[in-house]
Amino acid sequence: MLEYSEIMIRYGELSTKGKNIKLFIQQLAKNIRSALQAHPKVKIHGQKDRMYLILNGEPSQIIIEKLRPIFGIQTFSPVVKVDKQLEKIYQAAAELVASEYVPGQSFKVNAKRADRAFELDTIGLNREVGHAVICAIPEIEVKMKQPDIELRVEIRHDAAYLSVATIKGAGGLPVGSSGKGMLMLSGGIDSPVAGYLAMKRGVEIEAVHFYSPPYTSEQALNKAKELTVKLTPYVGSIQFITVPFTEIQEAIKENVPSGYLMTITRRFMMRLTDLIREKRGGLAIINGESLGQVASQTLESMTAINEVTTTPVIRPVITMDKLEIIDLAEKIDTFDLAVLPFEDCCTIFAPPQPKTKPKLEKVLEYEKRLDVDDLIQRAFDGMVFEKIQTGDYFLTSGQQEFEDLL
Amino acid sequence: MIYFDNSATTVVDASVLDTYIQTTKRIIGNPSSLHFLGTQADRLLQQARGQIAELLNVEDKEIYFTSGGTEGNNWVIKGTAIEKHPFGKHIIISDVEHSAVGKAAAQLETLGFEISRAPVDQKGRIKVDALAALIRPETILVSTMLVNNEVGAIQPIKEIGKVLESYPNIHFHVDAVQGLGKLPLQNWLTARVDFATFSSHKFHGPKGVGFVFWRRGRKLAPLLNGGGQEFGGRSGTENVPGITAMSKAVRLQLTDEEAKCHQQRQLQTYLIEALKTFDNVSLFTEPTDEYAPHIVCFGINGIKGEVLVHAFEEKNILISTTSACSSRSHVTGSTLHAMGVPGDIGTTAVRVSFSSHSTMSELEQFLVSFRHIYEKFSKVSR
User: Fold this and answer.
1) Does the record carry Transferase as a key word (chain B) (predicted)?
2) Cβ neighbours, 10 Å, residue A379
3) Range of B91's domain?
4) Which of A402, B10, B157, B289, CA to CA, is 20 to 30 A from A213?
C-alpha cells in the first residue's frame, strides 16, 4: 500500500460561488479540521480552486474515510510526493497505476509542469511516464478519451506530485455555510433524512425533540439521540435539545375536540421550535414532512400549522415517496433505528380520525381555551441541552458494557 | 479420569461457565420486554450475535440462535422443504449424515419428498461426481456434513459448492457441528454455502444452545412460530445465558485455532502410529488433512466396540462407539458401512476424540491401558 503525502480536494459547486467563495472555503476548512481532530499534524491549505491537505505522516487511509461524508467536497485525490528524479517518478507512476488497475482497463498520463527548468516538457513526460507504466503492466491499454485510469503528474518547484484515484466526495455545500436551522426530530424515518439533506445544502442543524414521559418512553428519547449520532459524521457534533411536552399534550387532550388534537399539537411544536430557533440564532425550521403521507401533512394541515410562524420551514423530503425516503434512510444508516417500535409523541394521543382538512378559524377558536403563552414558556424553561458526538451511544451499548461476559 | 469422547460432548470451559452463571444472575430480563431490563438483555443478545458474526466474518443478521445441532439441522431441512416445495420435492444428502439430518430427511419422504443419498469413498469422503449426478431440476436442497462424526473425514465442501455454482437455486446446507475450530473457516465457508449448523456443547460451551448461519437473501420457513424472535425465524424466548456463554466459547475456540489443531493433530498422529504396531487393530482414520485432527476411529478385530468401550471405562478412560447418539442402538456403524467396511469389522469400531484440553500424558496413559486390554483380549479370543 502506498502512503500518500497529500490529498487534493475539488470543490465542485463551490467553485461557482462569486465573491462569497472565501467564506465557503473557510467553512469547509473548519469542518475538515473538526473531522480530523485526531490528526493534528494535517495542514490545510484552502486555495480558490482547490484545497490541499498536507498529511505530514498522518495515516492517509483513515483520513480518506473521514473525508468521504464531508459536504462541500466534490471529489478528492490522494497524492504521492516524490523527488524530481525521473527514475523515482517512473517507479511511483507504475506502482500507483498498478494499485488501481483491473485487467482490461485503459489509462492515460496527464502531465503538468510548473517547473520550466525540468528536464522533460509535458509532452515528453506524458510519453516517458506512459512508457514506464506500460513496461510494468504490458497488457494495459492506452486511451486518450475517457480512460479508466488517469494518472496525473505535476512537476512543481519542490517535488513531483502524482495521483491516480479520484474519490467521489459527498457533494453539497459545507455545513454551516448556509446558516443554522432547527431540525424537528421525532424518531421516525423521515426527520433524520430531512436533517441529512438540509446539512447537504450547507445548513448547520440543531435537533429539537419533544419528550412526553410517561406517555413516551426513555427509549424513544434515546432512539432520537441515537439517530442524531448517525447524523454527526457530517459535522462532528450536533446540539440535541429535549423539550418537555407532557403538560402541553395533556392540556390539549383535555380541552380540544379529538379531530383537532393533532393540528393544535403540531402548532405548539412549531411555536416552540421557532422560539428556540430565535434564541439559538437559527434562520430556519427543518422537518420531515412529506406531502400527503399522514393527516398532518396535507396542504390544508400544513397551512393551519404553519400559520404560527413566518420563519422559513424547510421540508427536504416534501415531494419524495416513502420508498425514496427509506432508500436514503438506509444509505445514512438511520432506517434500522427508526423502525424500532417505541411510542413517540406523535402517535401517543393520535385520535382515531384526525382532520385532514382542519379549518383555521376553528383551530384559533379551540386554542383560545388554552393558555398558550404560559404553556409554551414552561416547556421552553424546561429545555435540556446535550451535545451529541460521533461515537456516543444511547440505545446500543458500548463495547465495555458486557466485556466481562463475552 | 481421561475423557476422550469430545465428539460426543466437551467439558464446559471454566470461564464460559462463569459467563453462564453471571449472565443468569445479572441479566434477568426477557429481551422482548420494553423496560430497561428487557433492553439490557436485548443489547447483550445482539452483542453476542455480533461477536459470533464477526468471528465467522459474516453479517450479524446471518446468525440465528437455536437449541443446538439437532434443531439446526431439522430447521434447515424442513424449513427449506416448507419454503421451496412448490419448486420441487427432491433433496440430496449423503450416506454418512448424522441422524439429525438423515431422519429429518426420512420424515419428509412420508410427505412425498424424494431423498437421494450420495455415496462416499473408502475414506468416508463424499464422491462429488456421484453427488453431482443426483441433481435434478426439482432438487431444492443439498445437505452434507463438514466433519464426519464417526471417522473424522472432512467432506469436500468447496468442491460440492463449485458444482452447485451452476445451480444457484438449490439451498446448500453444511452440518458443521463437528467442525468449528477443527479446520480453518475459509477452507469451507465459501460464498456458495447458504446455511451451516453449529452446536455449542461441541466446543466447550453449554448444552442446549447452538446457532445457524443463514445467508442473507435465502428463504427458510420457521419451524417454531410464536413471538417472532430471531428476526421472525425462530420464535421462543432467547436463551440469553446460553447464547452469551456460547458466544464466548466460539471466541475461545477460534483463538489460537491453528496451534490447537496442531496439538490435536500431534496426538492423533501419535495414537495412530502406536496403534499400527498392533497386528489385530483396524484403523479407519488417517492423520492427514483429509481428516479432522481430533478423531481416531479404530477397532480390535473380533472385539465388539461396545465391549472395548466398557473395558476402557473400567480403567477410567472414556471413549465411544462410533456415535454417542446411536451407541445404544444396535445399528451397523453407518459411516463405516457406507465406506464398504464389512459388518464384522465395522462392529468393532470405537472412537477416540480429543479436544484442545487433551494432553500427551493422557494419551500415554491411554496407550498403557490399551496394551493391557489388547493382551487380555488376545488371550481370550485365542
Assistant:
1) yes
2) 23
3) 14-254
4) A402
Using an 8 Å Cβ cutoff, are B117 and B149 in contact?
no
Q: Kindly report whether the peptide bond that precedes residue A214 is cis, defined as omega within 30 degrees of 0.
A: yes
Nearest CA in chain A to B46: A396
For residues B188 and B274, membership in a common domain is answered with no
Nearest to A397 among B19, B47, B51 (CB): B47
pTM here is 0.72
Question: Do B245 and B328 share a domain, yes or no?
Answer: no
SS3 category, B318: strand
Are residues B63 and B200 both part of a single domain? Answer: yes
Q: How far is B182 from chain A (nearest CA, A)?
A: 22
Same domain for B139 and B79: yes
**8 Å CB contact between B87 and B138:** yes
- Contacts with B248 from chain A: Cβ below 8 Å: 405-406
| Alpha-carbon distance B213 to nearest alpha carbon in chain A (angstroms) | 19
Rounded Cα–Cα distance for residues B11 and B21 (Å): 16
- pLDDT-derived band at A1, boundaries 50, 70, 90: low
Check B44 against A402: CB less than 8 A apart: yes
Residue B382 grid cell:
485365542
Chain-wide mean pLDDT for chain A? 90
Dist. CA B333–CA B326, nearest whole Å? 9
Considering the domain architecture, whether residues B248 and B286 belong to the same structural domain is answered as no
- For residues B110 and B248, membership in a common domain is answered with yes
Condensed to tens digits (0 to 9), the pLDDT of residues B172-198 reads 999 999 999 999 999 999 999 999 999
Considering its fold, how many domains does chain B have in total? 2
Sequence-ordered strand ranges (E) for A58-159: 73-82, 106-113, 141-142, 149-155
Q: Mark whether B158 and B250 lie in a shared domain.
A: yes
Rounded CA gap, B296 and B6, in Å?
A: 11
